[in-house]
Specification:
Layout (H helix, E strand, L loop, with lengths): L2 H35 L5 E7 L2 E7 L16 E2 L4 H14 L29 H5 L10 H7 L10 H9 L14 H15 L3 H10 L20 E2 L5 E2 L8 H4 L2 E2 L1 H12 L4 H9 L4 E2 L4 E2 L4 E4 L4 E8 L4 E7 L4 E7 L4 H16 L1
Antiparallel strand pairs: 1-2, 1-12, 3-6, 4-5, 7-8, 8-9, 9-10, 10-11, 11-12
């Protein structure tokens, strides 16, 4: 490479970096404005643009602490866990362990016995795109029983009863958000890899991407944020149990940006799996779905996104493969409207 071409490469790098900084200053301004209006809600945001990382955060870890939230502060990513699980499903396809159009019957624990009319009906892709038609957990009842740990009472026996007592898939082939679907996907992964879901996600995602602050079973750490319900009351982080593959991973903005960078890298294993998960598996007049991903398309952009809400925190992840950017927004209060409004404003005024 001669001097002139080297100079052009350096100039292009500086130009791209400056462009990314300019975008993120606008994003930070939106986040700051939201915090000034809602100082009771702590927030952490990570952004990647052409492989360059940017972070901002506002608020304290808790009301008693003067420690500020930062890119390494731990949040519940809740149902964003589902895109980690769907990425693992896509990796299992790449590994030759499954096919997306395989029926789920032979991959589930032997305790599950589908009634005759439901056998060889539901495919793995149906579970991953929320169109299996299976009945789901009754969250209203679970919350009534234990508002702090509503999934704590869900056991393998609970799931067996739901599956074995199901006699009709009345809305099979139609979109209906499903926690039990992603719980079953976790069990399918355990079956084909002969490991626990915890081990699989560590071996296939967490360790390869050096996501050192992404936690599953043990999340009693000093940098953990405090979760708040919509009324501002303290809410416990959900504990790990059989439904983990549907929503119980904890992480931070830094690690989720690492995940986004891998997703946007077509040569990385996670990136190749993400491309599989981006294939449209369901479409109606309201939405398009990949494997765990909502797909939003306009005349210039295709956006992939997933939101997450626990009882005490809200989050959303979004990326544009063609434009090579991705963003993660983490709130320390359950406030789905705020996190969606923030993403909409960021996208409409900065990223679009």
């Amino acid at each position: 490479m001669n001097f002139s071409s080297t100079f052009l490469v350096v100039l292009l790098f500086i130009s791209n970096f400056s462009f990314g900084q300019g975008i993120f200053k606008k994003i930070d301004s939106i986040i700051n404005d939201n915090y000034q209006k809602n100082p009771e809600v702590g927030i952490s945001v990570g952004f990647v643009n052409n492989n360059e990382e940017y972070f901002t955060a506002y608020g304290n870890l808790n009301a008693e602490s003067q420690i500020r939230i930062n890119k390494n502060s731990l949040f519940e990513i809740a149902s964003i866990t589902k895109i980690l699980t769907s990425n693992l499903i896509a990796q299992a396809v790449m590994d030759g362990k499954i096919k997306l159009d395989d029926y789920i019957d032979g991959f589930l624990p032997k305790e599950y016995v589908f009634q005759q009319n439901l056998r060889n009906k539901i495919k793995i892709s149906d579970l991953a795109s929320h169109q299996s038609g299976l009945p789901d957990l009754d969250f209203a009842k679970l919350i009534e029983q234990d508002s702090q740990q509503p999934v704590n009472s869900v056991t393998s026996e609970t799931l067996v009863a739901i599956i074995n007592n199901c006699s009709d898939l009345s809305d099979y082939g139609k979109y209906r958000y499903s926690t039990i679907g992603y719980t079953l996907l976790g069990q399918i992964l355990e079956s084909v890899y002969d490991m626990s879901y915890d081990e699989i996600i560590r071996v296939k995602v967490i360790k390869p991407l050096h996501m050192t602050n992404t936690l599953t079973k043990n999340f009693d750490v000093n940098n953990r944020t405090t979760a708040h319900n919509p009324n501002g009351g303290i809410q416990e982080f959900f504990k790990w149990n059989i439904t983990a593959s549907a929503g119980l991973v904890k992480s931070d903005a830094s690690d989720m940006v690492r995940f986004l960078k891998a997703v946007l890298n077509k040569e990385a294993t996670v990136g190749k799996a993400a491309i599989i998960s981006e294939k449209i598996m369901y479409k109606d007049e309201k939405r398009e779905m990949g494997l765990g991903l909502n797909i939003v398309t306009d005349d210039k952009n295709t956006i992939y996104m997933k939101s997450g809400d626990s009882m005490g925190q809200s989050s959303i992840i979004c990326y544009n493969r063609n434009k090579k950017w991705g963003i993660i927004v983490l709130l320390d209060q359950r406030n789905s409207k705020m996190r969606q409004d923030l993403l909409n404003k960021i996208y409409d005024t900065v990223l679009k």
